[in-house]
Design brief:
With 223 residues, the chain is of the alpha/beta class. Helix content is 45%, strand content 12%. The protein folds into two domains: 139 residues, Rossmann fold, CATH 3.40.50.1000; 74 residues, Putative phosphatase, domain 2 (DNA polymerase, domain 1), CATH 1.10.150.
C-alpha cells in the first residue's frame, strides 16, 4: 500500500484472544464458563461505550472487573474475591492467536504499534506474557485521554505518537466498531473477521477484510 509507514493494531480480540480465558472460566464455573466468557466480553465493551458517553472514565482493568462482577451476578454465579482476582490476573495473560507471531515478523519493514482501550500495565503484561516486547515501537493507551474507542480523539493519539498523518497509517482490528471509528477518522483499515460476521451498517467500512492476521502481510505488499 503506497504511502503506508506504520501498522497500528487493536489489542483485545485482534492480537490477543479474549476467548482464551474461557478455560479459566470453565475451571471455576463448569458448564457456565463459556456463557460467562461471552457475557463478560460483551459487557466489558458496553461499559466502555457507556462510560465514554457519560464522561466517567475508569481504567480498563476497573471496567473489566466491573463487567465480570455484573456478568456473574446476571448468571447467578457466586464470584469470590479470590476467583475474581485469579480471573483478572489471567486476563493479563491472554493468548495470542497462533498465526500472529509469524505475521508480525513479516511486517518488520513497517513501524508497528498498538492502540488499545487497555491501560498501560495491562498492555505491558499481555505483550510480555506472549514474548512480544521487542515487536512494537509503542503501546498507546486511551488512558492518555480518559475516553474509549471509537472516539476520534483516540485515533489521533496514534498519529501523534507516530508523527504521521492518518493516510500513512494502516489500522487493524477484529472489532467492527473500531474499524468504523478508525475509517471515519481517516486510517486505511483492515478488518480481521475471524468469525465471518456481518459488518455493521455505519456508513464506513474496511479497505480489506481478512480471515486472520496471517493474510495481512500479503495484502499490504500486493500494491
Amino acid at each position: 500500500m503506497a504511502g503506508l509507514k506504520a501498522v497500528v493494531f487493536d489489542a483485545y480480540g485482534t492480537l490477543f484472544d479474549v476467548s482464551s480465558i474461557a478455560g479459566a472460566c470453565r475451571e471455576l464455573f463448569g458448564g457456565d464458563g463459556d456463557r460467562l466468557c461471552a457475557r463478560w466480553r460483551a459487557k466489558q465493551l458496553e461499559y466502555t461505550w457507556l462510560r465514554s458517553l457519560m464522561g466517567r472514565y475508569e481504567d480498563f482493568d476497573r471496567v473489566t472487573a466491573d463487567a465480570l462482577s455484573h456478568s456473574c451476578a446476571a448468571l447467578g454465579l457466586e464470584l469470590s474475591d479470590a476467583n475474581g482476582t485469579a480471573l483478572m490476573e489471567r486476563y493479563n495473560r491472554l493468548e495470542t492467536y497462533p498465526e500472529n507471531k509469524a505475521a508480525l515478523s513479516a511486517l518488520a519493514d513497517y513501524r508497528l504499534m498498538i492502540l488499545s482501550n487497555g491501560n498501560p500495565s495491562m498492555l505491558e503484561a499481555v505483550v510480555a506474557s506472549n514474548g512480544l516486547e521487542d515487536v512494537f515501537e509503542r503501546l498507546i493507551s486511551v488512558r492518555e485521554l480518559g475516553v474509549f474507542k471509537p472516539d476520534p480523539r483516540v485515533y489521533e493519539l496514534a498519529c501523534s505518537a507516530a508523527g504521521l498523518r492518518a493516510n500513512e497509517i494502516a489500522f487493524v482490528s477484529s472489532n467492527y466498531f473500531d474499524i468504523a471509528g478508525a475509517a471515519a477518522f481517516g486510517f486505511r483499515t483492515f478488518w480481521v473477521n475471524r468469525r465471518n460476521e456481518e459488518p455493521d451498517v455505519l456508513g464506513v467500512g474496511a479497505a480489506a477484510v481478512l480471515e486472520n492476521l496471517g493474510q495481512l502481510p500479503d495484502v499490504l505488499s500486493a500494491e
